[in-house]
Amino acid sequence: MKILIIFIFAILLAGCVKQNTWKPIEYQNVSSGNAESAKQEIALEINSEKEWEDVWKGVFKTDSIEVPLPSIDFAKETVFAVFLGEKNTGGYSASITKIYESDNQVEVKISATKPGPGSMVTESFTYPYIIVKTKKINKPASFSWNWT
């Protein structure tokens, strides 16, 4: 009888645990393409103007042209940036497919595409990236990569 009471109590207690519900977050593309100075594969959550300027200047520094910094209102918005790093050929691309929010974190789903065997591609280095913005998020982000 004691075991039955303990078992029922355990089931009731387990039902009281709050489930972490994930809600999709809308996002807008800020910039995408090739960033020749982005040599490493990395994904970033950017929450301040200083971070944004540092990333932008670090990635888009060239001797010949200055790429203007897109305007972001960090009081209302958060930026997510994905850089695939240096690739030996064309045919690579990066996209953010979904962004989800729970009570205590954010999950960013990344789709990274590589050329298939025998694909015709450009024979030059490429540096695919994508940058998006969302509503302001004050939670840590984790990034989930899916290479196809």
What is the structure about, briefly put?
With 148 residues, the chain is an alpha+beta fold. Helix content is 17%, strand content 36%.
Report on this model:
The chain has a four-stranded mixed β-sheet, with no helix packed on it. The longest helix has 14 residues, at 2-15. The mean pLDDT is 89. It has two helices and eight strands. The termini are far apart. The protein has one domain (16-147). With 148 residues, the chain is of the alpha+beta class.
Helix-residue proportion: 10-25%
Q: Which whole number gives the mean pLDDT?
A: 89
The ordered H/E elements are HEEEHEEEEE
**β content, as a range?**
35-45%
Q: How many β-strand runs?
A: 8
**Poorly predicted segments:** none
Output the number of helix runs: 2
Number of domains: 1
Q: Judging from the principal axes of the Cα atoms, what is the shape?
A: flat
Termini Cα gap = 55 Å
Structural class, from helix and strand content? alpha+beta
Over all CA atoms, what is the radius of gyration? 21 Å
Strand order of the largest sheet: 1-5-6-8
Largest sheet: 4 strands, mixed
Summary keywords:
single chain, alpha+beta, four-stranded mixed β-sheet, four-stranded antiparallel β-sheet, 2 helices, 8 strands
